[in-house]
Amino acid sequence: ADPLYRKRSLFAVGRVSQDIGKKGSNVGLIYADEEFGGGWNRVGGVDVTARLDDHWTLTGQVVESSTKASRLDSASVLLNPGTDSGYAAGPATYFEQIRSGHSFNFDNTYADYSNGFRSNVGFISTSNVHSDSTNASYHWYPKQGNVQVYGVEFNQQLAFDHQERRVYHYTNADFFVSLPRGFVFAPVFGQNSDTLGPQEGYNLPANHNFTENLVGLVIKGAPSALLNFQIQPFHGGNVNYNPLPGVAPFLLHQDQVTAKVSVQPLRQLTADNTYLLDRNFSVKDGSFVYESQTFRTKINYQFTRAFSARVIVEYDSTLANPLQTSLARTKQVGTEALLTWLPHPGTAIYIGYNNDIQNYDRTLCTRLPAASGGTGTGPCDTSQPILGRSSNYLNDGKQIFVKASYLLRF
């Protein structure tokens, strides 16, 4: 019944460029087009790369988009405010300056996506925003002692929409020390701030900045050829983006841990283990809101240069306080197994097995009361998630596959 059924789309992408000078600078023109159902998304513009010297490089792009919704499906394109024509247009710009050096490194990026800009052929995370991000670091290299290098690093990300409402502001700095055997020690300090308002659909009378200080630590190293690790505990802030219906978002204290440990007890055997923790409490009264955890193990065994086996097991869970958040309690266990025969690049045979189980309700929806007055035996409630949650597990994905490729050599 879809009016676009059996309709075909046409994609076209083209670019021309001209080298300038002997340092690798160039200027180019780009055009991308999607035509579908009487509508289109066309993007064209100019880009430039200027290598000023051995350290500094400037890159930039300025483009303009023109988007018309399909005449059969005018809802496929977000309309410009105050119009009903199914047409949107607007510019986008991107500029970056980079300095690469032995001691001083610098990267600043500015991006601006207008409210009418669309890119169906490419990818942008959102429109109606202009942002600036900066990363700068300076290294010192002692000539004596166990310290191989030490330095400071600064990061800042700032974004506003085109109504000059702040979207986010993240700032952090750290001091790092690098020692033998890959040991790195870096305390991190900063502040994170996210801004929400009624324009995001939340129950807020006006824009509100949710700001929280950040403190953390990065420790990593390789004490032996058999072991390397990286641990990152952080305490900062977060926002409850999933409050109860009718309740405004509120600020959270957030504890995060990222731990990665790789073990190689045998030359042929490698085990990579990952643990992620994200635990959140209400700033107002200290009550528990939600917690997510991930355990992941990947084991790889290399029988010969061409033949190997890999197994991945991952467990994910979310615990949620139903009095504080609308998040559901979820549990998931995924397993993957893969045998690979790779005599040379381009020629290979893969035999794999994937399996996934989650705590889905076997009715596969939240039921409305039956017409006869029974409980939970009627049709599905379309206002609720299609896959409801329960205390039991349901296997929602099992797959066995074989993939083969052969490289013809001439």
Descriptive overview:
This protein has no helices and 19 strands. The protein is mainly beta and 410 residues long. It has a 19-stranded antiparallel beta sheet, with no helix packed on it.
Percent of residues in beta strands: over 45%
Query: Termini distance?
Result: 50 Å
Structural class: mainly beta
Overall outline = globular
Mean pLDDT: 91
Order of helices and strands: EEEEEEEEEEEEEEEEEEE
Helix content estimate: under 10%
Low-confidence stretches: 74-84
- The number of strands is 19
What gyration radius follows from the Cα positions, in whole Å?
27 Å
Query: What is the makeup of the main sheet?
Result: 19 strands, antiparallel
Number of DSSP helices?
Answer: 0
Topology:
Elements (H helix, E strand, L loop, with lengths): L8 E12 L4 E12 L2 E13 L4 E13 L18 E13 L4 E10 L15 E12 L8 E12 L5 E13 L5 E13 L11 E17 L2 E13 L11 E13 L5 E14 L5 E15 L4 E14 L9 E15 L2 E14 L28 E17 L5
Antiparallel strand pairs: 1-2, 2-3, 3-4, 4-5, 5-6, 6-7, 7-8, 8-9, 9-10, 10-11, 11-12, 12-13, 13-14, 14-15, 15-16, 16-17, 17-18, 18-19
Task: List the defining traits of the structure above.
single chain; 410 residues; mainly beta; 19-stranded antiparallel beta sheet; globular
What's the quick description here?
This protein has strands at about 10-20, 25-35, 40-50, 55-70, 85-100, 105-115, 130-140, 150-160, 165-180, 185-195, 210-225, 225-240, 250-265, 270-280, 290-300, 305-320, 330-345, 345-360, 390-405.
